[in-house]
Amino acid sequence: MRAYIGISFETLIYTFFLVGIILIYGEEFELVIQEIKMRKRLVARTRKMDELGKLRKHLNYISAVSFDMKNDRLLFVMIVIWIASFIVGKISFDFSEALIFSLLLASTPYTVVRINFENLRKKTSFEGETLIVNFLNAYRISNFNVYEGLEGIIADGAKELKSKNLIVKMILSLRQSGSPQKIREIISEFGRAVGTNWSRMFAYNIQLAAEKGIDVSIAVEDILVQLRDARKLYEERRRLNSEAMRIVVYLIPLLYLFTILASVLFIGIEPDKLFRNQFLTKQGFSLFNISALMFVFNLLIMECVSKQKFDY
Fold first, then answer.
1. Residue 303 scores a pLDDT above 80
2. CB-CB contact of 89 with 97 (8 Å)
């Protein structure tokens, strides 16, 4: 009995002690709890803003490289198309269908910019030899001055180079900047814009020359040698791809026509019956559609394979 009384007494004392602490320091405890909650909300918002910032930076980057558009112009166009198409879509569709419809339409400007960006990458990837030869000539004539070497790239045959705008932007930015960190960012943009191994290696050598004044002519010349070796392999691969493309484009339709002629002339199927079986029955029409889709899909694959970027 005495043990229970002692435990109850101790519990009562601790309870009064805790109540007293809460009454005295309750506001401080509440402030600490609110601060913890606020920090959690701030971390969550910062992560969300970082994600939005990366998306915004990506849109600005590809739009500037592709069409020399100002910052946030592409994002603004996409938002306007999304709002307008959603309002129009609500008239004829329900909420979910209108939302999907508007998102698909809003993505079309990005698709156009992205396609142009990838086409620009492919075209500039073939300019490696010309670009590096012009750079080496101007670089050696100017007594290994990297800035004059870059200017020499666009001095000879500037109108023919698709990468002219990238080089001009890089030169202007380098002239205005002196910090190593800024130099790295400016030069790495060129490597990312072209998106090839030779462009990244060339950008790295330009960075070393701009930061430390190192003679990089031998390293750049090694890139040129590798590009020339890669050119031989590319020409052989293009010849093989062209043969495969001719087989797909010409032989497959001829084989289909041959099966029709063989069915009529050798098997004895009447043309009107063949037409009905092919196009007016479920099985025949499905088979024709599948064959046509496979033919188109094959053409797309061959086109993607044959139009790859030039690299080593």
1. no
2. yes
The pair of structure tokens assigned to 33 is: 């709890």
Q: What is the pLDDT of residue 32?
A: 66
Tell me: the pLDDT tens digits for 36-89? Answer: 766 666 555 555 544 457 778 888 878 877 777 777 788 888 888 888 888 877
Report the half-sphere exposure of 282 (CA within 13 A, side-chain side).
0
String of DSSP letters for 85-122: HHHHHHHHS-HHHHHHHHHHHHTHHHHHHHHHHHHHHH
User: Three-state SS for 268?
Assistant: coil
Residue with tokens 């043990």: 3
Terminal Cα-to-Cα distance of the chain (whole angstroms):
90
Closest C-alpha among 110, 175, 186 to residue 147: 175
Nearest by Cα to 167 from 114, 123, 124, 227: 124
Residue 162 φ/ψ, nearest 5 degrees: -70, -25
Contact partners, residue 145, CB within 8 Å, separation at least 6: 139
Mean pLDDT across the stretch 114-133? Answer: 83
For residues 253-270, average pLDDT: 83
